[in-house]
């Protein structure tokens, strides 16, 4: 039995090569250490050269030198670089989406959506380049002006994950460049090709507008490259996206040298479904949030907390929807669930399912691997729903797979307590038509997450809001709103134009 029909590794190689050529990037033909790989078939595509210690040193020094120039460039002119990058991203939307699908396994619509997110954040950062506002503050002294001024921070080290291999880079880079910073990027080892494409487009944008080439440097490499960024005092801000385990190392190491870190770590996102929820809307919102990107978003819905009265019919409807999910080749327009990133990710999912069963859970649907006869190294999996007797140990952990745990509640207070009783705090939602319930969920006594939604799932945030979460999610905020402040330093200025020396707090001296 062949099962899922897939393109060949040669087809994917040709498609990746064509996309890279169209963006103007060099197709790697020899390499040390790294390999570009596709989860669609599980095959290696190209060898990729990896950066060593010398390359890392050179890149940091170059980005630091470029910073000294870039910080003097007026912010609206810095915005012109980001505008040009946004134009190139629009022009090459399909090429970038191809590379995202090939390396991360995203279905077409989600890969295009990721590129759209990049375009959107460029538009945002162009506007931001004219809005890096500081406040003026009423001085307590006559003839004095008190103000805050925002200045560029330095070199930003961006460490990104495989699941949003391009968008998370763009959130950081578009904002950092507008803020007057330069960037050194260490992407996931799993996604070198899309990284080469993004780097090339930014280099083209820099050439087109006459910005210094070294405002951005890409370092493809293993963990040692990330460690160098973490420990180097020339990296003013380390913006790292990944697991909580990774963040536990990065945070203290950056803090030990008094650097800044911005951490986007694990999520264990939940939705509360109240008795008044619109069932059609809830089912569609839940399925996208739990199953989209094959359950491999930081914002993926992993826990469903359902009122006891509506739990059985809701689970029945979700089960019916899960049984019909088209699983397979992410380039096929009818597919909704592409591959997991690796067979190891499937092993983790199986291990979580086994633990859930041992902890009293009941598998309702899914959890099996779909055979892909031509590609034994690819992991296609049926998204799973497990009913659990409560928030057991495995439910409190993030498993990066399409695995949805369902629990029941009787009172909203109980639902909120369950909701918040996990170590992570990224995204959350409530499905309800009761305004009092919705507002309570959004209030100080409600969800403790960085993102809290009503009648929409936990994933798929727009770039205009700040993105990030609390507790073990790391506390960082990226992308929109005032997240830019993390990429700048504020100076408080007191200017005395009175001709008299007046000391604050009525202190007299001399
Ligand atoms: C991530 O999974 O790391 O809100 C980022 C979302 C996307 C970004 C996810 N806009 O699901």
Automatic annotation (TrEMBL):
Keyword NAD tagged: yes
Domain Aldehyde dehydrogenase: 34-490
Pfam families referenced in this protein's UniProt entry, alphabetically: Aldedh
Subunit: Homotetramer.
Similarity comment text for this entry: Belongs to the aldehyde dehydrogenase family.
Source taxonomy: Bacteria, Bacillati, Actinomycetota, Actinomycetes, Kitasatosporales
Residues at the active site: 264
Record protein name field: aldehyde dehydrogenase (NAD(+))
